[in-house]
Amino acid sequence: MKKDNKMKKILITGGAGFIGFFLAKELLKSDPKDLELVLVDNFKRGRKDEDFDLLLKDKRVTLINADLTDPESYKQFGNGYTHVYHLAAMNGTKLFYEMPHEVLRINTLSLIYMLEWFRKENADGKFCFTSSNEAYAGGLNSFGVLPIPTPEKVPLVIDDPYNSRWSYASTKLVGELFVIHYAKAYNFKALLVRPHNFYGPRAGYGGHVIPDFCERIRDQVDPFPIYGADDTRTFCFITDAVRAMIMLMDSPKTDAQPIETVHIGDTEEITIKQLADKLFVTTGWKPKSLDIKNGPEGSVKRRLADISKLQALTGWKPEVSLEEGLRTTYEWYKAHPLKKS
Ligand SMILES: NC(=O)c1ccc[n+]([C@@H]2O[C@H](COP(=O)([O-])OP(=O)(O)OC[C@H]3O[C@@H](n4cnc5c(N)ncnc54)[C@H](O)[C@@H]3O)[C@@H](O)[C@H]2O)c1
Questions:
Q1: d(Cα 87, Cα 57) in Å, to the nearest integer?
Q2: Whose alpha carbon is nearest atom 23 of ligand 1?
């Protein structure tokens, strides 16, 4: 078939994961015609559930089951993509502590192979790498003087290489360097985004605070454990988050060199205890007592992104309130308990 100029060809790695799935849904909604959407995943964490099966029924979507740490995989991807969103990674706080060596190997190797494939096969395309707020968490911990709200341009620090938690952050930190310098050396368009606590349905089980709270409320766990009760975070509902990613990738303002790094997140800062309280109100269940515990080693006390750059580049505003997002998320977790095999 002759490729028409308006046709968009998009690849999402980690397409079966939390962000990848919602990003695919949003792209299908906003680009109704002439879209070719390829999802790549090895299902190490992503799920082939009924939601995902429904997505695959769309004729514009193709699934490639491939492991990005295998260089042979890339032969299946073809070429000439307009946009590539590289989301695949070993994510989830539990994994950072359980298998830090695998987090390091998988995240770094898959990014290097991706960039090699991209520069050879997609000279006119644009590459998006999902870094993380964890990339600057070490700076918050060790200096305690990073501005809050925190802008993009701050020192990126690994304050303790022996703490397994930094396995993940280090792959994001070095990942940012890889993308900046590959894009410069091979002169391709690229973008670094740093997600700040995206949440919503289908975000996995175990290892993220909102899914954990939803599962404990559904199971009426009492006393109710809360780790790092006084730590503050912001939470960005997933449909708002993927909309920001697409707006940034579609904007010609992010086409130039040097490439942009952009924070994506909400600005309503709340403590983890306040988050639990909001969920108790939303769900109508409250435990008799709380079991307050320390946050995991290396977890930062306060995190709030400066999102003025995102807003200046795109005019993005969140549309889903925390209450509404928590309600939607809880309903999903209530209806989808983890199937224990
Ligand atoms: N969710 C957040 O709030 C958040 C915050 C900061 C950064 N991020 C980053 O955004 C990206 C997506 O996050 P997510 O929450 O959707 O995570 P996720 O774990 O739900 O999705 C990642 C997907 O990548 C796939 N994958 C992992 N290794 C692979 C490999 N070798 N080959 C092919 N597929 C592989 C997994 O199976 C999974 O489906 C990640 O890079 C993550 O580090 C997310």
A1: 22
A2: 14
